[in-house]
Design brief:
The protein is an alpha+beta fold and 720 residues long. Helix content is 32%, strand content 27%.
Length: 720
């Protein structure tokens, strides 16, 4: 007995759906179950589609796609319709999609399965439906709930249109959508789906008195339903030729109404006939209302973003002309919430002396008042710098200006509690000499700059500083001078780049250090865009997808504005060109002054040496170097009246480097060995140096002396 005869005896048919060719093969029993003559037949997909209930046909597409993705059976309950639209019977389909390659080399699938008639429970009986895998029929209420949630989450007009295009309405999904907007007395297409690019041309700019359904909907505020081409041609003969070429057979035009005002129209077009029953009209009307509300919210949000972005952009300066021998890049990223304005800023100021100044600052707060104060403060700093004042004088005047500005606002806005609260600002001002690379830095409560050296090592460059601007009107800001060597890159940033994402200063710097120390050539940076690439990478480290998985140790995630400025002095190792064919490891050097009045900077000196030796082979030698530096600098502060100047440099290839550290002071008194007792708290500096250093000595100078020591890197052996 043949398999086909056995299946026919149990009212089970076989079918095969070729997705590539769009044909469906049925055996005799399957054809009978679909209401066709009981004989094998091969039909186009559209002919078989007409035999199924529209709701079931829409759902089976999703079931098959899931089965293809998961490699499982596709199983569904389907209702068979006669030519008059009545349900003849209900069948259950079980099929498996099989992947195959088409003649043109594309991967497609073929669906092979069975169709079996099932008995539906009669009214008044207790029979229940058997659960069937993949039966995803949703009620109208569930569809509207999903549609409302998706439209409510859309934040822009483009997102609203994408959501509208993806809506699969229960039983009558349109395959052509268009949204029309109104501007004055003109109607235009603001978005469409299911059409080719350029199809919107005739509808782009249309008078409202045009004989077109969308125009009439806007004029009257009433929906128009056209269930057939004949109905369209009869009611709108003038514009029927424009719609005829799209091969649709049913159309629904609905008004988009918000707060009693018609803001546009929504068109849903169908390739299959739609009768627009009361239930279908109810669904379309509800979707149109939600779509109008979503478009209104998106329009308001886009207007606010455009306003605030334009405001912030107008306050952010453009970087000046190119500077011979140097490159500059900058980024500003407002905080993700609210109006997206804040108090961070940066500036580049040409100076009368031929030099230029880089300024970066952060006014307290992320609101409109902070942005306003930032704009005024930036202009004031630029004015003071353009007058030729030195860095310390610029910040002193800026502090006095901000304190006076906040005082005047407190007096003028007695009814506004926020306006009465004092504001301060942090700021870092750097005067640069492009010819020599000399930098003079004045700092007002701002994070120190970081320098990427020519060999890739990143050091925090400690600088003397004062209080943030605006706290005390008359404040002094000491100046720190150092040189940016050829090939080195300096980074200035606000605390938002460091602390965003739950990080503190230490963990935030560790995150940025990994980005700064990456090889610029391995990262794909090429002239002239190395600095631009590096600036993008720094922002991505904080705001990119990976930052959500590398949060800091702090419990709260404090989001903040970000401003970052990069200054590169061109030279070997900076990344602004191709790497040298025979690279030579450059000298790694740092310098730091510890004043008599700033003993706390001894900790900074220890940190500088440790960072300088971050890849030294022997950790014990690193600890020894840090201990000797601490002893030498402390001795200068205790036994002399002058400041200590620390210079440390590492020379040579990895594994065989030489570290030389010099501490200079203005005293002529030479150190000498002491013999402290067991309870003595000092006097062991020379003894420690003799024990730990590979070489050391004292060099007299014209005024004062220089104490130095050297350590030779000892590579760790595998058996050590």
């Amino acid at each position: 007995m043949r398999t086909e005869d056995v299946l026919a005896a149990v009212a089970t048919g076989l079918w095969k759906w070729d997705n590539a060719s769009g044909t469906v093969s049925l055996d005799a029993e399957a054809a009978r179950l679909l209401g066709l003559p009981a004989e094998p037949v091969v039909l186009p997909e559209v002919a078989v589609r007409s035999r199924f209930h529209p709701v079931d046909w829409n759902e089976i597409n999703g079931i098959v796609n899931l089965a293809v993705a998961e490699g499982t059976l596709a199983e569904a309950r389907l209702r068979i319709m006669d030519v008059d639209g009545r349900v003849m019977r209900t069948v259950r389909s079980r099929s498996r999609p099989l992947e195959r390659w088409t003649a043109d080399g594309n991967l497609d699938y073929e669906l092979i399965g069975t169709i079996q008639e099932i008995a539906e429970p009669q009214p008044g009986t207790t029979a229940a439906h058997t659960p069937i895998t993949g039966d995803w029929r949703r009620s109208r209420e569930a569809f509207l709930l999903d549609a409302g949630r998706a439209l409510a989450e859309a934040r822009s007009t483009a997102e609203v249109l994408r959501v509208a295009a993806s809506l699969s309405m229960p039983g009558f999904s349109p395959d052509g959508l268009a949204v029309f907007g109104v501007a004055g007395d003109r109607l235009s297409v603001i978005g469409h789906h299911g059409h080719d690019a350029g199809d919107e041309g005739p509808f782009t700019d249309m008078p409202l008195d045009t004989d077109y359904p969308a125009a009439e909907v806007v004029r009257t505020g009433r929906a128009i339903y056209l269930s057939s081409p004949e109905d369209y041609k009869r009611r709108f003969p003038a514009t029927w030729p424009l719609a005829q070429r799209f091969d649709r057979v049913s159309w629904a035009f609905l008004p988009l109404i918000v707060a009693g005002r018609t803001m546009g129209a929504w068109m849903a077009a169908f390739r299959q006939p739609a009768s627009f029953s009361p239930d279908e009209r109810s669904v379309l009307t509800t979707v149109a209302r939600m779509l109008a509300q979503a478009l209104q919210r998106a329009g308001v949000a886009e207007s606010e973003r455009e306003l605030t972005t334009g405001l912030q952009r107008s306050m952010m300066p453009q970087l000046g002309p190119e500077i011979p021998g140097m490159r500059i890049a900058a980024r500003y990223v407002p905080t993700g919430g609210g109006l997206q304005v804040g108090g961070d800023w940066y500036d580049m100021i040409p100076l009368p002396s031929g030099r230029f100044a880089l300024v970066i600052g952060d006014v307290q707060g992320h609101d409109v008042r902070a942005a306003g104060l930032m704009g005024q403060l930036r202009i004031a700093v630029r004015a003071y710098a353009s007058e030729g004042h030195r860095p310390d004088a610029v910040l002193s005047r800026a502090s006095r200006f901000l304190a006076g500005l906040c005082t005047s606002q407190e007096t003028a806005a007695e009814e506004d509690p926020d306006a009465r609260s004092p504001r301060f600002a942090t700021c870092l001002y750097v005067e640069c000499d492009p010819r020599t690379g000399t930098l003079e830095v004045a700092r007002a409560g701002h994070p120190d700059p970081a320098v990427r050296m020519t060999d890739g090592t990143v050091l925090m460059r400690p600088t003397a500083g004062g209080l943030p601007l605006g706290i005390v009107p008359d404040t002094d800001y000491p100046t720190t001078r150092f040189t940016l060597e050829p090939g080195e890159t300096m980074m200035l940033c606000t605390d938002g780049l460091i602390e965003t994402g739950g990080h503190d200063l230490d963990t935030g710097w560790a995150r940025l250090r990994a980005v700064l120390e990456a090889d610029p050539h391995e990262a794909g940076a090429h002239e002239p865009g190395h600095l631009e690439t590096l600036a993008d990478l720094l922002v991505q480290a904080v705001h990119g997808p990976s930052s959500h998985h590398t949060t800091g140790p702090l419990a709260d995630r404090r989001e903040d504005d970000i401003a970052v400025v990069l200054l590169c002095r061109e030279g070997a190792g900076c990344g602004c060109g191709a790497p040298p064919a025979h690279p030579v490891r450059p000298t790694r050097r740092t310098m730091l002054t510890v004043a008599q009045a700033e003993p706390e900077r001894i900790a900074g000196a220890r940190r500088q040496v440790r960072e300088l030796l971050h890849d030294w082979a022997d950790e014990e030698q690193v600890d020894s170097a840090v201990l000797m530096v601490s002893e030498m600098v402390t001795n200068v502060l205790m036994h002399t009246d002058g400041d200590a100047l620390l210079v440390a440099e590492a020379v040579g290839e990895l594994g065989g480097r030489r570290l030389r550290v010099e501490v200079a002071d203005s005293s002529d008194e030479l150190p000498h060995k002491r013999h402290p007792g067991e309870m003595a708290s000092s006097g062991r500096g020379v003894l420690l140096t003799e024990m730990l250093a590979d070489a050391w000595g004292v060099d007299p100078r014209g005024e004062g002396k220089s104490i130095w020591f050297e350590l030779y890197e000892q590579s760790k052996r595998p058996d050590a």
